[in-house]
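Session log. Operator J.P. requested a structure for one protein chain; no other inputs attached. Running the standard single-chain path with token output.
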Amino acid sequence: SIPRGLGLLQLASIAALIIGQSPEAAILAGAAANHITASVLHGSSVAAEVEADAYGIDYLTRTEYDPTGFLTVWERFAGSSGKFIEEELGIYATHPLTRDRVHAARDRLEELGVPILRRLVTHAPQPESHALSLDGEDVTEIRYVGERLALLEGQDADRGEAAIASIAWILDHELDESRIKVIPARNGVVFQPEGGPSFSFTHGDGRLNGAGEAVLAGELRTRLTEIVADEQARVSANYHLY
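Structure written below.
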């Protein structure tokens, strides 16, 4: 009997080989036969592929590699292939739809209690600090993807690095606003992300930014959580829309 998914092109190619038509037809027929053989001998069901994905994630949790990378790879594939209709592929219809693999991988990571920190396994942009002169005053500018987030008084490299580390932690760990504290201190406020490094805004920082240091810290907290939400929405839109 003819294997399921064997289309007219494959039938014509095999017929060409049998009756000895052109070498090109024979080559095409041979390729078709090889694909059919591979499907028959090595084919697996969609369920088996789903199971294999789950086992792959399980194995990764026992290694030094972050299993979130498994998810981000499929999210990337879904973002590029999702614009095309995934149709019945005949002998190749042994794999789940890409978007379904994304959902399954995310669910498995959640079941295993693995924090999904996409930015730690991708080439995500990071905040930067730049020393500059503003109206004749030396300052440190904190930027993210071309956007100014804050100005710090003076050109103190250590303070700049502390601010970058704290902001990067928030972005990388996708913290929401409730997990970022603004704590009053003697000379300003402490900006404290949950589980991460803190830094301080001084009275001079508040002056530079045209607001009190507490207002400055609050506005930064709000802006960073907006960036996190935007990035999360962009990732999920890649595979939820198709």
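Operator note: The two ends are 36 Å apart (CA to CA).
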